[in-house]
Specification:
A hairpin with a 5-residue loop joins strand 3 and strand 4. It is built from twelve helices and 17 strands. It has a five-stranded antiparallel β-sheet with strand order 2-1-5-4-3, with helices on both faces. A five-stranded antiparallel β-sheet has the order 7-6-10-9-8, with helices on both faces. It has a five-stranded mixed β-sheet with strand order 12-14-15-17-16. The two termini are 87 Å apart. By secondary structure, it is an alpha+beta fold. It binds adenosine-5'-diphosphate. The site of adenosine-5'-diphosphate has 20 residues, from helix 10 and helix 12.
Length: 572
């Protein structure tokens, strides 16, 4: 396996370990926090119930104390009467009784729950009576079983008339009253239960284990060394807190949240006992919520990413199309460049040819001039052979003329190409121009024996043009016709076609091959024929003609039947 792959695998494994460790740590944290919150929730519930019980008992005690202090008629009947409104206005008393100073129950309300004549001393149950009398303050005793069943708690309130002890008001409150009001419904069924114990660990109320009421939990319900016994001992000391124990009966681990209930000098304890699995359910609920949240987030991210991918792929496709289009454009422009390059090469070749041709053309007359000059020098002063002298002078003259024409042609073509050829436009007679051109070429034509016919309709033809330049065009065309025609004739015709003037210069010469018809107007282009080489020329004449005619807004074209003659047709 390659080094790169191993590194990738190692990094991936490390990442998985880190993610798992983070997940484990987070889970522990979440479990810890949820358990803590759950316990606090149970503790809050126990506190609420305890606070309810405390304020209930406090209210009852206060009422009895007020009654004891404000009693006017302390006769047994008078006391019983004063109990009635208190009993009815403040529900929750089981019975209110009056015990006279000798410790005998003398009256009470309700009468049926009052054991009139019951002697505390005789029954040996006088100690709270004695405490209340001697301490001159309320004495509360631990709940005890009532004759009527259930547990009852007793509040003994001494009654004094000034310093004279009149007896004790005994308020009996059933524990079931407390549990019915504050404990039974505090936790929904199946979610756990509340229980209440006194300071000795006796059960005062138990939401599920009813048989335990009045019994001590430790020893009967749980072993002395059990974790539940530890919790109960904490409760018996009036402490507040939470703890766990394993309930043998339900077979479940329970969370217990306990808090004290203080009534006078009595300290009881209310506890909420809830299966620990409920906290697990809460955790599962939290996780379910989180998983749902994460799933929604992932779904949103996936949908968003999908959308972005679609947008990007759309852009990508457009980009690809654009690239293909640009590539095609580039290919086309490359082809254009290649053909331009070929053309440039061609032009370069033409330029080289031109330079060599121009050099040759310029050199030839110079050579003739030089030779003629040398001959003239050798004859100079000898006084003989004046014919030779004349001939030499004519050669020099012709050579200078030839060179002059070449330079003039070069200047013209340069002016045409740079757009600098100026036309002296005026109303001119085209026939006059043709006649003058023919006249100027007459000598040459006579020498070659070629006849020049002019076939012009009417006496004159007025047009706007540059007289000299147009003469230059016809002279050139007639000159070419004379050059390339050895027998036959040259004909110049003029006529009007569709409102345009058409002038045709035709000959019966060698003609021009069809593929050369357009190219003869290119500068320096000459048809590659033996005659062309023989008669010479610069290849500039027709290019200049074309420039001049187009400068007049006209056109010029060549027609030919190869071997039979040519015609140059001007449209103006
Ligand atoms: P040149 O100075 O060579 O005559 P032109 O531009 O006037 O230059 O003519 C270009 C070429 O066209 C000539 O070299 C010749 O090959 C051809 N050409 C022109 N006129 C005629 C014609 N009347 N008959 C045959 N070929 C012609």
């Amino acid at each position: 396996m390659s080094h790169k792959r191993l590194t990738t695998l190692a990094v991936a494994a490390l990442l998985i370990v880190v993610v798992m460790w983070l997940g484990y740590a987070t889970n522990r944290e979440v479990v810890g926090v949820v358990h803590q919150q759950f316990n606090e929730q149970q503790l809050l519930l126990a506190r609420q119930s305890a606070a309810g019980i405390e304020s209930f008992l406090e209210e009852k005690t206060n009422l009895i104390e007020v009654l004891a202090e404000n009693s006017q008629d302390m006769s047994p009947d008078g006391m019983a009467r004063s109990f009635i409104p208190v009993y009815h206005k403040s529900s929750g008393f089981f019975a209110i009784q009056f015990i006279n100073s000798t410790g005998v129950v003398v009256s009470g309300y309700p009468a049926e729950d009052t054991p009139v004549g019951f002697d505390l001393y005789a029954a040996n149950r006088s100690w709270p009576f004695d405490v209340a009398r001697d301490c001159k303050e309320i004495c509360i005793t631990d709940p005890v079983p009532l004759f009527e069943g259930g547990l009852g708690s007793y509040a003994w309130v001494p009654v004094y008339d000034d310093d004279e002890f009149k007896g004790v008001i005994l308020a009996v409150i059933k524990i079931s009253t407390l549990s019915d009001r504050f404990l039974i419904d505090a936790i929904p069924k199946g979610q756990g239960y509340l229980y209440m114990i006194d300071h000795s660990g006796r059960s005062l109320y138990d939401g599920v284990h009813e048989g335990t009421i009045g019994e001590r939990y430790i020893g009967s319900f749980c072993a002395n060394d059990s974790s539940y016994a530890d919790i109960l001992r904490e409760q018996m000391q009036g402490k507040e807190g939470t703890g766990y124990y394993f309930d043998e009966i339900t077979g479940e681990r329970q969370i217990v949240a306990y808090t004290p209930v203080v009534w006078g000098d009595r300290v009881w304890s209310v506890a909420a006992s809830v299966p620990a699995s409920k906290a697990g359910e809460l955790i599962r609920r939290v996780y379910r919520g989180q998983i749902l949240f994460v799933a929604i987030v992932i779904a949103i991210i996936l949908a968003g990413s999908g959308g972005i991918i679609l947008i990007f792929s759309g852009w990508n496709r457009e980009l690809e199309k654009e690239v293909v289009k640009k590539t095609d454009d580039l290919k086309r422009s490359n082809m254009g460049l290649a053909s331009a390059n070929t053309r440039l090469g061609e032009l370069d070749r033409l330029k080289s040819e031109f330079v060599s041709m121009v050099s040759h053309e310029l050199k030839t007359p110079l050579t003739s001039i030089k030779i003629s000059m040398d001959v003239l020098k050798s004859l100079s002063g000898s006084g003989k052979d004046t014919d030779t002298e004349k001939e030499m002078l004519q050669i020099i003259d012709r050579s200078i003329g030839r060179q002059k024409r070449l330079v003039s042609d070069l200047l013209d073509i340069s002016r045409i190409e740079t757009g600098n050829m100026k036309f002296n436009l005026e109303t001119v007679d085209l026939y006059e121009i043709i006649r003058e051109s023919t006249e100027s070429m007459k000598n040459i034509a006579d020498k070659t024996g070629i006849l020049i016919h002019t076939d012009l309709k009417g006496e004159s033809m007025q047009i706007t043009g540059d007289y000299d330049r147009l003469v230059q065009v016809f002279v050139n065309l007639i000159g070419n016709a004379l050059k390339f025609t050895d027998k036959g004739e040259i004909r110049i015709q003029a006529r009007t076609v569709d409102g345009h003037l058409e002038i045709r210069v035709s000959d019966t010469g060698i003609g021009i091959p069809p593929e050369e018809l357009d190219r003869v107007f290119d500068k320096f282009h000459q048809v590659d024929s033996g005659l062309t080489r023989e008669v010479g020329g610069s290849g500039l004449g027709l290019a200049i003609c074309k420039g001049i005619i187009e400068g007049h807004g006209g056109t010029i074209r060549a027609e030919s039947e190869f071997g039979k003659g040519s015609a140059f047709v001007i449209m103006l």
